[in-house]
Amino acid sequence: MEVEVYSTLKPISSIVHLPQRITEAPRFYHATAKEFIIGEPIGDASDQSFFINDTNGYSLGLSLLRFLKSTFKWNDLAMPTDRPLGNKEKWEEFQGKGQPDHVEYAVKYLFSHLDPSKLFSRDSNELQQEFDHFLTNNLLSFIALSGGEFELPDELLQSNNHDSTELLREAKRAHEYVIERHERLRDRRALFSRLQFGEHDVPWTFDPWHIFRSMLPFTRPTSSPLFKLYRHLADPIRIFTISGEFTGHLIPLSKHAINAQNVMETKLSGLRKAFDSEGPEIINYRAQYSDPDICKGIVTSTAISKDGRYIALGFGNGGIEVVDIDQQHAITQFQCDLRDPIAWIDFISGSCRIAAEDDEGNIFIFDRGLQPLKLGTLPGGHYPPVTAVADNGSFIIRLPRHLGSNWYKSVAILYVLEEPSIHILSFPSTIPTPLRLNSPHGPVPPFPPPVPCGLALKLSPGARYVVACDREHAFVWSTESCEFITSHNLLDFEAFVTNTAPYRPYIISGNVKSSKGSIPHIQGSRTENDIDASWVELLFHRLSQKKAYVRERQEPLGVLKPKLWLRNTLELILPIEYHPVLLTRELRNRPQEWYGDRVIGGEDFVYFPHASKDGTRFLVQGHMRAPIVVDISQIV
Length: 636
Description:
Layout (H helix, E strand, L loop, with lengths): L1 H8 L6 E2 L9 E2 L4 H5 L23 H13 L14 H10 L3 H9 L6 H4 L6 H21 L7 H4 L4 H16 L1 E3 L6 H9 L7 E3 L2 H7 L9 H6 L7 E4 L7 E2 L4 H15 L4 E2 L5 E2 L2 H6 L1 H6 L1 E6 L5 E6 L3 E6 L4 E7 L6 E8 L3 E6 L3 E5 L6 E5 L8 E4 L5 E5 L12 E4 L5 E4 L31 E4 L5 E5 L3 E6 L5 E6 L3 H8 L5 E3 L3 E2 L14 H17 L7 E2 L9 E4 L2 E5 L7 E3 L14 E3 L5 E2 L9 E4 L7 E4 L5
Helix pairs in contact: 3-7, 7-9
């Protein structure tokens, strides 16, 4: 290549300086030489070959397309080709090698060298043919190779050529999907404003593996030409939905529930629209809640069995449906007495024995073939409680979220087997005042939040102990005696809750690495009591060390896209419609949202979706009217 370039330029070496080292660029001897040879040819016909009448550089387009075609065909750059292509380590190794300058140039400036008049001409030409091959065979490889550097001219995105234009628009979406923008400013609104108006001075990183792991599996095939062409490159993630979109796997519903869905969709089409103060359309939660037919079709709570096979769906009218997603059929239906929306559901044992609570705090136990048992009533509220079930199904721990900073005084244990009953766990008379360590004047006590932010719950391996925490404190109780044991201040809530539950998938908004300091889910030949004793001893040791749970952050700070982690490993980025809904913490401003994955607090959060015991199947709903089941068992 180097010899060929020199031999090509040597005849004009009297006007062009050819450096001896390839790292240096050629240059004209005379400053006006460039202007002289660019423009309309002058002189005789034999002189025309020395003039360049191509100020846009369109003459390079065909050559660049052919060069990239050959590069991808023979994989000259040793790009990752073995599935799964969503493997982060493969791409990081490839990115670490870097690319030659001519490859970087071809990728960065390809589209600016393509002549739109030829690309979208009605007459077939070589440029069109090479471009069509590029779009249908190499587009995703090109984006993965680009490192986020290429730009699409508006002329290409505004063409009347529907197929090509749609593919380019999706390419732009894929490009933006894998660029992770960061901001160090505290004011996130300033960042969103800058992104909205297209300013590009925000630091970013480029993660091409998410094209294959996080984008393609969650792309709707009916509306995506990109998916139809490249679906074979997607990671083997199975997504179960009520409609069967995405990967075609169903959450099967009974005929009764399907009819309710159809009626709901009809009613929604005629519902009055709602808009926020800045103009965009938003979900009209109040109007939806006021219509019984719409409530009947909206899922307000979900649960998944420990083996990941059974799903329980609670609806806005108090109805519950249990389905088998492996055998693809509905199993049974239940109905709460007062027809209020279901706040939470948990599987107790098997496929059909479940516990549920409605929005008014009425708690029921259901089982197929048996009459519903009303366990009792606890104070309810708009903020759904947090629950955890013992592995043997004997009891459920329930944390309320509507009682402000005193939530720990109303933690309940619900016995759901031989003699069903409700007991309130004992609580400390006083707790240490949490301190904020980021004040320039030293540690200062914070104002107690009106609604506890980020409640989390974890049972020990044998369920003899339970640890519950908000952003300020961690509390430990004995589930056998119902007695309070101890409490500790928390320096870092996110790191603590992710390290105490490394085998549960969690969605986190911060750029957090929580691979160190985990409390293992101890297993082995020891007795259950020994395992629990070791677990709680290690927990106490971690809590007593002030630096044990100080979170490791990757610079720069402030990630915008919530990510799903499992076993302290980043697995995927969820589509924006399945991001958790952030609720207000002000009691005087009752949130309108009454369904979806609701998280209390600011933009930094940790959310634990309902998941199978091994964490490879989990439920997410975001702000949608129905959940999806995501199966990542083939990629972990």
